[in-house]
Structure to design on (190 residues):
């Protein structure tokens, strides 16, 4: 990087954006199996260390960690953690994060799969003027399946709902991070 580029870099550009090819590297996105060749495992460790160094200097690490643990089910290395570490942190906090279903959001469905109840309700709420037949076609299911899910949704609306568990605080996430991630890494999020 030349000096003109270094001075013109916006303050808001963070390491994960600047080093997107590192964070999106296939070995960082999907770690190799224990049976993978040694050079592939070594390369994965090298990439992980580089990403860890980038995250360590990021001023947004705390917020990124909170979002990656509590709000979004991100893939690969993020916020100074691996997928396995984020799963362990969530386990300690007693929370689950549902992965985004981009196919459903885009209206894409696969044939011969079970239709998700929430998917039917979401699609109906997003398209209230569409006929139930059209919704069934978009979902790749029968009209009776759509009706059954919508009837269930109406019946559930009359039942009292359990209060959702409150989201953990930033300090709770940081404490779990310190417990899960190697002791040498805890100073990064502190």
């Amino acid at each position: 990087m030349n000096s003109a580029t270094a001075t013109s870099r916006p303050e808001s550009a963070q390491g994960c954006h600047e080093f997107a090819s590192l964070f999106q590297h296939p070995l960082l996105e999907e770690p190799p199996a224990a049976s993978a060749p040694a050079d592939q495992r070594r390369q994965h460790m090298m990439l992980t260390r580089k990403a860890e160094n980038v995250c360590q200097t990021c001023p947004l690490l705390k917020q990124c960690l909170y979002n990656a643990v509590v709000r979004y089910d991100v893939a690969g290395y993020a916020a100074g953690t691996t997928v396995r570490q984020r799963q362990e942190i969530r386990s300690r906090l007693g929370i689950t994060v549902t992965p985004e279903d981009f196919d459903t959001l885009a209206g894409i469905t696969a044939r011969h799969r079970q239709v998700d109840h929430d998917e039917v309700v979401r699609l109906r709420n997003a398209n209230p003027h569409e006929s139930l037949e059209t919704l069934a076609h978009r979902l790749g299911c029968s009209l009776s399946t759509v009706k059954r899910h919508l009837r269930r949704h109406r019946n559930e609306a009359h039942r009292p709902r359990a209060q959702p568990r409150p989201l953990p605080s930033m300090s709770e996430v940081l404490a779990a991070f310190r417990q899960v991630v190697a002791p040498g890494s805890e100073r990064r999020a502190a």
